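Severity: low
Component: inverse-folding endpoint
Summary: output formatting inconsistent between runs
Steps to reproduce: submit the following structure tokens with default settings.
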């Protein structure tokens, strides 16, 4: 197999010329800058370099997965090629595989990749097709790969799931109880799309449709953003918004439904829902806020109180047009909405493409004293900790959040001394590089142990080319953490 040398900023890196060729190839060093946290902080037990990755803009968050003594991480490499690395726990030696899928300037979730390991150890990998480069090599019409052998990334098959007509947008593997494996994706485009679900048959190693229709049908007028998560009560809880156009401000109608088996769905009152779910389905609306009212697919989350009642947290504008976080819980036959914040700023959330995140609605946790703890963040005020009355959801007290441990603060500090240039077209305010810490999707077998991946990049770009100068590639790393 031939390799070519490619100049990348002030570095020279090796790039493959074609298909699935890098198994066993060690990545080149990115530079001398690194954190060395494992030697400075007792909680950090290991610090392991994975590979140099693209850093010019936020491109498809890596997936970290630990299972049965092995660790896998899927990512886009320094030239934006879809890649996967694997190692035995306890070893710093990775094996590698890359695929003929090279992303263009898509950002964030628009270049999403998703990884899963089935019951028998076969590795499943999928990636979004949006703004792929035209080659060489020519991008495949399908981007679903399955390993030929269990626990082995040296050979993959490129397959269709159901038919060659599938074109999955926002692909997502979802793992359920009893080794069930689902695949969720959008069929269509923003403003005109349906949400479809496949289920994997472990015995025949084939995929089939989970429903006779899409789960969410936009009827060529809108598309649903969101989906199900498995709750502590054993139900699948789906929360979503509808979007009428690619403009983020056209989001509306925050909604909720639940299911015991991912097949039959019902309202929160237990009334059965006839599929597909549409914007006209009765009994699913949490907040009927319309386009322009502040509802966004970027800003909502789901938590549970001590009685395992679901609580939806979300962003919406108040009567004065200011951004606020609300919590909604179903009580006495209706959803009750309670404002948690009293902010004085307004997030201009309109526009298309990957937009900068200026707030995070956070999540709620039940405390031993009977209150609910709501952690959230905004660009204006930073991290906040609010205590809520568990019965009314009304704010009781605002506390000073605990400072994160020193190792986490160090990990969140950019390594690369590169200042991102302000660019109004890209909605970039400029400043230092961004750091994302990625939780493990798998299940380490060691008690009290967790793994985190660290990914450094220069932020979102609204699917537009980023002018030079560019930051050099950054090192994707994995950390073994002793949990407190």
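Observed output (run 2 of 3):
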């Amino acid at each position: 197999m031939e390799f070519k040398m490619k100049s990348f900023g002030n570095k020279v890196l090796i790039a493959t010329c074609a298909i699935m060729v890098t198994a066993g190839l060690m990545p080149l060093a990115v530079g001398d800058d690194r954190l060395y946290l494992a030697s400075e902080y007792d909680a950090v037990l290991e610090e392991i370099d994975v590979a140099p990755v693209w850093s010019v803009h936020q491109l498809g968050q890596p997936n970290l997965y630990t299972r049965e003594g092995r660790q896998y991480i899927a990512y886009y490499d320094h030239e934006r090629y879809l890649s996967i690395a694997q190692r035995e726990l306890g070893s710093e030696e990775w094996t590698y595989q890359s695929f003929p899928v090279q992303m263009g300037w898509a950002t964030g979730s628009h270049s999403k990749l998703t990884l899963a390991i089935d019951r028998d150890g076969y590795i499943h990998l999928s990636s979004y097709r949006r703004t792929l480069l035209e080659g060489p090599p020519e991008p495949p019409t399908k981007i679903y790969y399955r390993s030929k052998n269990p626990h082995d990334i040296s050979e993959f098959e490129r397959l269709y799931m159901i038919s060659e007509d599938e074109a999955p947008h926002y692909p997502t593997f979802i793992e359920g109880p009893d080794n069930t494996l689902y695949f969720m994706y959008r069929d269509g485009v923003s403003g005109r799309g349906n949400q479809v679900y496949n289920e994997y048959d472990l015995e025949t190693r084939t995929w089939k449709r989970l429903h006779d229709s899409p789960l969410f049908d936009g009827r060529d007028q809108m598309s649903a953003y969101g989906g199900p998560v498995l709750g502590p009560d054993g139900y699948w809880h789906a929360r979503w918004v509808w979007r009428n156009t690619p403009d983020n401000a056209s989001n509306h109608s925050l909604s909720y439904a639940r299911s015991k088996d991912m097949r039959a769905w019902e309202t929160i009152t237990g009334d059965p829902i006839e599929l597909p779910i549409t914007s006209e389905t009765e009994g699913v609306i949490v907040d009927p806020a319309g386009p322009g009212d502040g509802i966004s697919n970027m800003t909502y989350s789901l938590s549970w109180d001590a009685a395992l009642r679901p609580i939806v947290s979300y962003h919406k504008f108040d009567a004065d047009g200011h951004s606020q976080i609300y919590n909604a819980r179903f009580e006495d036959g209706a959803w009750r909405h309670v404002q948690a914040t009293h902010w004085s700023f307004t997030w201009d959330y309109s526009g298309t493409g990957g937009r900068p995140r200026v707030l995070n609605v956070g999540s709620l946790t039940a405390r031993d004293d009977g209150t609910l703890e709501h952690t959230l963040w905004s660009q204006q005020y930073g991290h906040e900790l609010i205590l809520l009355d568990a019965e009314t959801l009304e704010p009781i007290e605002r506390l000073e959040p605990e400072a994160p441990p020193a190792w986490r603060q160090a990990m969140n500090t950019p390594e690369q001394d590169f200042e991102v240039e302000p660019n109004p077209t890209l909605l970039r305010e400029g400043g230092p590089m961004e750091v994302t810490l990625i939780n493990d999707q798998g299940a380490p077998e060691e008690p009290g142990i967790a793994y985190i991946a660290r990914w450094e990049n220069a932020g979102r770009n609204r699917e537009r080319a980023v002018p030079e100068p560019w930051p050099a590639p950054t090192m994707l790393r994995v950390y073994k953490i002793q949990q407190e």
